[in-house]
Write a structure and sequence with these properties.
about 15% strand; IUNH; alpha/beta; 8-stranded mixed β-sheet; binds calcium ion; 13 helices; binds beta-D-ribofuranose; purine nucleosidase activity; about 35% helix; about 300 residues
Amino acid sequence: ARRIIIDTDPGQDDAVAILLALASPEEIEVLGITAVAGNVPLSLTAKNARIVCELAGRPDVKVFAGCDRPLSRRLVTAEHVHGETGLNGPKLPDPEMPLQDRHGVDFIIETLRAEPAGTVTLCPLGPLTNIAMAFRLAPDIIERVQEIVLMGGAYFEVGNITPAAEFNIYVDPQAADIVFRAGVPITVMSLDVTHQALVTKERNDAFRAIGNRAGEAVAAMTDFFERFDLAKYGSKGAPLHDPCVTAYLIRPELFTGRHINVEIETRSELTMGMTVADWWGVSGREPNAMFMGTIDSDGFFALITERLARL
Ligand code: BDR
Ligand code: CA
């Protein structure tokens, strides 16, 4: 199994990504979950991550709180997408499992130092603050990372928080810049991919028809999540972004992309957080990321439905 740390700001789609990972122990071993400020403030994302672990029947998973704000910019949140709690939709009980005492960034550093080099994959599903902070404080861990598989950025689908930028990168562009320059193998699930992973009514019904708590909760989440955006996504439903990351670890053949150079805009306010993706290789700059462009969305939703049924 791939051994991973999930870095997350739940978020309904983060929740589905976590459930998919925890439902797939043959392919994925979750070493721990680090929460970061993003969709909602840190106190809520750290709480939501534990709610999701308990929903998966896994109160033993270690959940850590990480950074409560971006490296240098003011925190921008997305209650307009996810609701006040970040996890609006289903009625889920407050978590009983503890939040770990250690800081999430320390957990990332200590885990990468303790485990054999090249055996731990980082899976960021929110702003990249915790990962960048860990790389800054402990540059020795960078070469020990097996791979970073993240949700963030866009090429053709450009922005969902500004016309130029995707939310996770926009919230902490300085952190994203550090991560994309680190020299670690990076796989990017951009809006180009996630906007092909739309929760249609049939797909939502299939979640509900699973008939267990997880299926019911996920159906309620995807009922709520980004439904405000029907004008944008039409009757096809809203994109399920973050589970593309964990689905990739289980079934990489669902995705295709290109190994290209990606740089992050950190200076211009107009295009702040833009992922400048050299899809056509015109810059001559070294490729630093596997930038995904297509997904087999039927295969993706079938995988999630099949795995949620195991919970
Ligand atoms: C990303 O932003 C968040 O709102 C979602 O959880 C996802 O990680 C999509 O742009
Ligand atoms: Ca997220």
